[in-house]
Design goal:
mainly beta, Methylamine Dehydrogenase, Chain H
Length: about 400
């Protein structure tokens, strides 16, 4: 494993991936150069050696936009070890549809990509020079669930996990069940292993993202559609069929409003806390314009019981943004940066103003609690959005 040289915040606006220097002492971000990708950035994952990043992109839009697009790519980026500047590296590989998430296995030899509509998973080889190679064939007719949102390797690197959210019921169709789909992973080839549906049917269960504890055999899951946090145990690369603990993420009575959801989840680098974002962006009409309605846009902090893994809420803090999709920590765990996707009109004291997309910076105290420092407005022109952000070491 290569020793990291530094770290930076990388954030996308449409097809532009921007590097920000981070001043931890003063909790400040400074925008530097950017690089253009073949389409709107969807996700980024580092190689274990931190010398390369792998980015999934598309000219399509989110599921609600109805824009499927035709250019979907997995791209390797070479990272300069001095300050983290990025450059395109090797051939860009075409993907079958709009990707939503991607990861790299622990050996650094395979890149995995998840797709939500239709739900799917693919694997590409990573070549010796760090570039993306050909696709690896997987088992025919794998069960890939409904509306996948994340793909991860389990800590033992023997299994791949596809987190499939499912969909709420609508006037046109019944609810579609969510699930955790596990696959055997053998030299990049996937084959079906297990499907977990807490509550047996998967109805009333809509997982979005999971994160593993850095030292304990515990997994924490953000259940997007039900606004809950689940904690599972992990043994011999197998996750417990049912969660040991289920905790509410909301501080207010917002469970039944439209578009109140969880998003990202991360265990703190020290393993003592787990963080999750609550987001809402429903709109109503006001004076002929669509304005933010109501809901909870907070970051929630859970302490982790060091013996049982049980998470307990210790703080809800305003994100100062609407619809936080991503957040991340600097390597020391002293700063968190959260990002929202797009601007939105808000009604305040009878007047309508536009609230931009943004980056919110928080200090992380020894007790895990967050204190807001500052927020940076981010311009997202037209239909572009700040779809992904993350602090990466290099």
């Amino acid at each position: 494993m290569t020793t990291p040289h530094g770290f930076a915040l990388y954030a996308s606006v449409g097809d532009e991936l921007i590097r920000y220097e981070i001043d931890v002492k003063n909790a400040q971000l400074t925008r530097r150069e950017s690089i253009q990708l073949p389409g709107n950035v969807q996700y980024l994952w580092p190689h274990p050696n931190r010398g390369f990043f792998y980015v999934s992109s598309t000219d399509g839009g989110s599921g609600s936009s109805g824009i499927k697009g035709t250019i979907h790519r997995l791209t390797a980026l070479k990272v300069d070890p001095t300050q983290g500047q990025l450059s395109l590296h090797g051939a860009q590989q075409a993907l079958p549809s709009r990707p939503i998430h991607n990861t790299v296995d622990a050996t650094g030899r395979f890149a995995l990509t998840a797709y939500n509509n239709p739900s799917h998973i693919t694997v590409h080889r990573i070549l010796a020079d760090g570039s993306v190679g050909e696709m690896v064939a997987s088992e025919d007719k794998m069960d890939t669930g409904v509306f996948a949102h994340q793909v991860l390797m389990t800590p033992g690197n023997r299994s791949a996990l596809l987190v499939t959210r499912g969909n709420n019921a609508s006037s046109e169709k019944a609810e579609e069940a969510g699930a955790l789909k596990f696959y055997h992973f053998n030299e990049g080839r996937l084959s079906s292993k297990a499907s977990l549906h807490p509550g047996h049917s998967g109805l009333g269960y809509g997982p979005r993202h999971v994160d593993f504890h850095p030292t304990k055999p515990w997994m924490y899951a953000s259940i997007e559609r039900q606004n809950t946090l689940h904690m599972h145990t992990l043994e011999n690369d197998q996750v417990s069929k049912e969660p040991l603990f289920i905790k509410d993420t909301l501080s207010g009575p917002f469970h039944n409003i439209p578009r109140q959801m969880c998003s990202a989840i991360h265990v703190h680098p020290n393993g003592r806390f787990v963080y999750l974002a609550n987001r809402a962006d429903n709109t109503i009409e006001s004076n002929g314009r669509k304005v933010f309605d109501k809901g909870e846009n907070t970051l929630v902090v859970f302490s982790i019981n060091p013996s049982t893994g049980e998470p307990t809420v210790i703080q809800h803090v305003e994100s100062h943004l609407i619809h936080v999709r991503n957040f991340s920590f600097d390597p020391s765990g002293q700063l968190m940066v959260a990002s929202s996707t797009s601007g939105i009109d808000v009604l305040e004291n009878g007047s309508i103003r536009h609230k931009s997309a943004g980056l919110s910076v928080f200090r992380v105290a020894e007790d895990g609690k967050l204190s807001f420092v500052r927020q940076y407005d981010i311009d997202t022109p037209g239909i572009k959005s700040q779809f992904w952000s993350g602090i990466m070491t290099y």
